[in-house]
Structures
1.
Amino acid sequence: MAETDRNHPALIGGLIVGILSTLPLVKLGNLFFCMWALLGGAVAARMYIQSSPKRVTYAEAARVAGQAGLLGAVINVFIGMPIELAMLPAGMKWLEGAMATMTAVQQQQIKEALELLRGMTTGEIVLGFLLPVALLGATVLFGFTILGGVLGVTLFEKRRDLPEEER
């Protein structure tokens, strides 16, 4: 029997994870238990379940979701980092405006952090801050996408194993 194609479900799930986790404001959905990663993994698992002629195991779904998570993580790092770098000045300006609502100690800490950022080159910002944060985020996305795939089997796989005599 031919093996069920994992690439198409992984591609769709990975695009869901990567794009929704990268878009400004939309990416805030990941603050809710990595919602986009769970969704991407579950979609990949559902698509794989629908295309499989036999019952899909947790391990198979985790493999498909892992591929989706890897793609989503790559998208998040290589597309998300330039977006974060472009949005950095607006974020710094927002912090300056929000300082009025902070305590004196918090205001001093924000001022020091902003001065430090202003003194850094773009390369130092990328290597010293954005890249480590992006890699950590990519790792978390990868893990939660796999979890989404496993949850997808629990939610969508309704076929039961055949009795021993029918195999």
Note: The chain has one domain: 7-160.
2.
Amino acid sequence: MMPVLHGTEAALKPLNRYFDAIARPALERHGFAYAELLRNWARIAPDVAAFARPESLHFPRRAGKGHTAAHLRLRVQPGRALEMQHMQGQIIERINAYFGYNAVARLSFVQAPLAGAEEETEKAPQGRPDPAVLERLRRAARAVSDPDLRESLARLAEGVSATAARKS
């Protein structure tokens, strides 16, 4: 249970200080290795952490005594699974090096959007266009005889002037 804070103690604190207490009930059924993977994924696999995250870790049933390496399923942003397949060996090596033993033997990938992941494509400008710049660009577009090209240039002018307004 997390302590109740009063007065000056109630300052904001980093969530990682309370991660174990908050996540323990959910992670107990997955074991220590899965909790470590989730908590340190960006450190274990920094080049893929932006578009791939651990989804589940399955340990096969043991036929005899001894350690059996797990099967890790990663959730990967659509379009990145092929790249992940090519990096599969490196990812397994990094995970096993982090744990210091053969923790993961196999990877599989599920292509699905990641919750909270940033979009890779740039979004349309949201600033207000500078009226003077916009009018100057529209005048230049009016000189074009092709109506489709003229319309495209006008839209481009709005985007350029909005981007310029955001940067200033």
Note: Confidence is low (pLDDT under 50) at residues 119-125.
3.
Amino acid sequence: MGWRFPYKSGRIAPKCVCPSLRPGRGPRRHRAVTGFTLMEVVVALAVLAIVLVSVFRMQTGNLGVVERLQFNTQAAMLAKAKMAELDATGLDDDIELEGDFGDAAPGYNWRISVSPRDDELLGQTAQRLYRVEIRIGLNQDESVFHLHTQRLVSP
């Protein structure tokens, strides 16, 4: 007994010897080898699960980064606006102010601290130089943005 496979042209292939019919072996049933084994399916699913978990973790990490960047951008703009207000009103010695932005930026609060800069190396210029710190917080300081700068007041 042998197996015969049709060629594309429709002719029948010559007989080939089946390995189970070699001398010393009894006839065995032949099964068609199609599909995947259970082990192959389990391994494929495990690889797929590892890849999907990695992708989901990366995506959630990206969402956190985007949220932080949005806060930093908004807080920097709010700090710039407060600095402009401070420049318009003028600087005085030892100012401590705080408040919130109201409906313009709900949830955001601010604190401004101005102090004179005492530096012997600067001489007379140090009397007109102020250290300014603006702190912007969101949702009871869940996130905080600090702006540190110096301003030179004209004589």
Note: Residues 65-152 form a domain with the Pantoate--beta-alanine Ligase; Chain: A,domain 2 fold (CATH 3.30.1300).
4.
Amino acid sequence: MSGKDSGFKGADVSTQQQKTVVEPQLMTKFEFASPEWIAALRERLEYYTAKEGPGLELSLCEVFTGVPKHLDKHGNGIIAWHCIIKNGKVHFEETAIPEADVRTEVDYTFVLPLARKVYSPDAMHEVEEMTAKGVASGKMKPTGRDRSKVPPSFVGMHNDLAERTL
């Protein structure tokens, strides 16, 4: 993917995929990128990976820069996570990796509205526009080897978290 590609073009957000999983534990809301949000992300990664089955192989990494001081546990203004999914298992760490199938480095304040947005067919044009603005301004740096490896069902994971993100 080139540095100018938002990575969202052609995203498949069909009606079936946009439905979020309604479970009692999904009622709790928390601050974006907080320890509680990271824990929920990890749980959702495991849930959606299990739904995909053992054939899924994927690596993901997000790096949030300019994070609020009260969330900055390392004192460097960065919160990062990555996961490597292989043989139906999720290996998750709160660190960045230099390369992944999908890797995004993004300013915390810039990405917050996207983190809260439920992806639906009607919303994707706005998501693509916001992402393109982030790339153009340097606030979002999507890189990666193969975004197409992300299963369409993972939109549900984003939406589950979006509905819970303050």
Note: Helices lie at 15-18, 35-52, 108-116, 124-137, 154-162.
